[in-house]
Amino acid sequence: MLLPPPNVTGTLHLGHALTVSVQDVLARWYRMHGYNVLWVPGTDHAGIATQVVVEKLLKQKNNCTRHDLGRDRFVEEVWKWKEKKGQRITEQLKMLGASLDWSRQFFTMDEKQSLAVAQAVVTLWEKGLLYKSDSLVNWSCNLRSAISDIEVDHLSISGPTQVNIPGYDKPVTFGQLINFAYKLHDVEEEIVVSTTRVETMLGDVAVAVHPNDLRYQAYVGKKLYNPLNGRYIPVIQDESVDPKFGTGAVKITPAHNHTDFEIAKKNNLPVIPIINEDGLLNSSCGKFSGLKRFEAREQILNALGSMGLLRGIQDHDMQLPICSRSGDVIELIVKPQWFVKCKEMAEIASAAVKSGSLTIEPYNFSQQWCAWLDNIRDWCISRQLWWGHRLPIYHCRGEEGSIYVGAADDIEAMKKAQNVLLGKIDIERETDVLDTWFSSALLPFTAFGWPKESTELKLCYPLSMMVTGHDIMFFWVARMVMLGSCLTGKLPFEKIMLHGIICDSQGRKMSKSLGNVIDPEDIINGSTIEKLKQKVDDSHKNGILSKRESELASASLEEQFPQGIPECGRDALRFTLLSYKIKSHYINFNVPDCYANRLFCNKIWQAWRFSCEWAKNLSPNIDTLSKPEPKNLMDKWILSKLSVAVNIINASIPNGDFHKSTTAIRDFLYSDLCDVYLVCPLIFPLNN
Description:
InterPro entries: aa-tRNA-synth_I_CS, aa-tRNA-synth_Ia, M/V/L/I-tRNA-synth_anticd-bd, Rossmann-like_a/b/a_fold, tRNAsynth_Ia_anticodon-bd, Val/Leu/Ile-tRNA-synth_edit, Valyl-tRNA_ligase. One of its GO terms (molecular function) is ATP binding. By secondary structure, the protein is an alpha+beta fold. 41% of the residues lie in helices and 18% in strands. The strands form 9 sheets. Strands 8, 9, 10, 11, 12, 13 and 14 form a 7-stranded mixed beta sheet that branches. Helix 8 packs antiparallel against helix 9. The model has no long low-confidence stretch (mean pLDDT 93).
């Protein structure tokens, strides 16, 4: 097994503790049944997440940015952070009692992993599976980088809502549907369109209506006048338009919307970007150029109002995409990015589940797995960051043309270029880094020496199973299967066991800003409310939490743990985590449950002490002990109860039904052993 590598962004949380507990029980159970068990630890460089944390720290401590330091010095600072946090994560894993093979510990940017990652990219290049293309990507203007779908949160907005956005002095209003008029060319008529993003009308290339919407049939093919830039745009039909959305007529801005981008491709419409990487309107926007996008919204609304074109603003429910790392509103922009062709790999991964050669537990995730893979888009693997694996792709320019090549280093790149280009050749390596999920998706085989065909790789790959949270099934697990099958010709494992997401006792997702993130160490060793609040204060001092967030978090801690958290010990923590139904979508963790299990662990200890004291009276010779035979009815009874418990445990552990095991253990030790069997010698004389 492979431990999903924790990110070096900070310390472990209860989600990590759950995964560790599940995998450790499986490892110990299989060892007890005679299997050779290898369980490998490691940590992940977590590109964008780690870069953001270190940037915030530098800003808070030294009032400088990564641009002030330059790329090389900034990366040095991140390595210092990694050494500190990586060591702390190792200490925490050992504190949790994880029986990992520490001699095999890896880091996703260590030398061996870096060489393997480069080889993987080059192999994909040589297979024709990599390409560069202008495409819409999730863009964080605050981070100046593309980010993956998993790094996008969706904030539910119900009606007008004020949202704080990085870089803005005052909150921005969302949750409004704006209706404005486009006038028809040379005719005193108009079409009223509905939009939540009026600021992007500077990049509009059409207005679309549904083909069956009779209200607009007479206008299809006619031209509308955009008063902000003087362009004329057509009225077109498209089945993707919802006639019930607003007025039923929508503006098409392909440079900043996925659906609009596809409509533009179908209708051969131009793509006109209007927002720069920094979130400012670009030079094509006339008098609005240089404005922040949401400041431009206000000015455009005012302009439409003064021209008599604003037709109303309605309350509107919506999902607002937010960058989970920076809190910025995600912008879709067209950028040249590197992509992996996924269709063939996805077909193999989907077919593996459909055929039963790869199983998923809980089984209900199988359908989601296949649906996602059967409709997969190509994977954007480039990130405009400084921390991570630089793409081993080179732009080679000759006297009569240029090409891209995939190569492990400059020398190999030059050799490949010389086979194609003439004359003097200049080579330049891509500055973008790889999506973190790319390097982690290679771990089932790179952790054992790939690309070398070593004995270790033959013995240890494929893995027996993969255990992780269901929230990263698509972003990590599916990509492990895709890249594993493509680069090795084998599925990376035969079984996937997915567990739920740890929430607090109220069912809320754990978040530093909510003050409900619990450090496993605080449960194991206990913590006062003062120490808990000090951690929040430290997060604020390091720039991780804003002042407002730290105040809310501290207040939440006061409410949840006014007396602090009692010392529970690691056995109680692990037993509590495994006593929940881990296959549930969400798992509500309750500290009082953990304290109750501390008392249960103490009960086991007291039972053991009692048994040892009683055994002294029997004076057994442990050197000559053999399998005991039950001598009376009570012995037979307790052994039968033990047999029932063992059967339940052995049936439930390999299937991930750990709550059945913990219930069986509790029932046997409490109800049968302690409450009945161990008190019998106190009630009945020994000779009877």
